[in-house]
Amino acid sequence: MKTKKTQLIKITSDFVKENFLAIDDSQSNYIFDISTLDKKSQNLIKEKLITFGKLLIKNNCSFAIVSDYLNMIDFNIVPTQEEAYDIIELEEIERDLLKN
After folding, report:
1. Is the pTM of this model over 0.85?
2. Which pLDDT band, with edges at 50, 70 and 90, does 19 fall under?
3. Domains annotated on the chain, with CATH
4. Which positions ≥6 away from 75 have C-beta within 8 Å?
5. What are phi and psi of 67, to 5 degrees?
6. Which of 10, 13, 61, 89 is exposed most, by the fewest CB atoms within 10 A?
C-alpha cells in the first residue's frame, strides 16, 4: 500500500491572518490543528477548511481537523493529532481496499 504524504498544519492566531489555504498541493493528506485557537476564531475559519477539505476529498485525499470546539458530522474532527493521523491512515487503507 502506497500512502500519500500527510502534512500537518498548525494554525495559530497569527497564521489565521495569512491566506493559509493558498496551499494548492491537493495530492497530499492534511491535518489542520486549530486546537490553540479560541472558539470564535475556529468558527471563522471553518468554512475555508470545509471548502479546502472538499477539494481534497474530490482528489482522493484525506483531511482531519484537530479541535475541541467544532462539531460537524460530514468531516473528520478529532481532539488530538494522534487521532487525526489514525483517521487518515484508516481512510488510506479503505481507499486501497476499494481499488482492489
Report:
1. no
2. low
3. 6-99 (3.30.750)
4. 50, 53, 63, 65
5. -160, 145
6. 13
Phi-psi region of 56 (alpha: psi -120 to 50; beta: other; left: phi over 0): alpha
Look up residue 15 and give its amino acid. F
Would you say residue 64 has pLDDT above 60?
yes
Please state, as a whole number, how many other Cβ atoms lie within 10 Å of the Cβ of residue 70. 17
The closest of 18, 23, 24, 21 to 47, measured between CA atoms, is: 21
Distance (Å, rounded) from C-alpha 57 to C-alpha 69?
22
Nearest to 36 by CA among 67, 82, 78, 70: 67
C-alpha cell at 54: 472538499
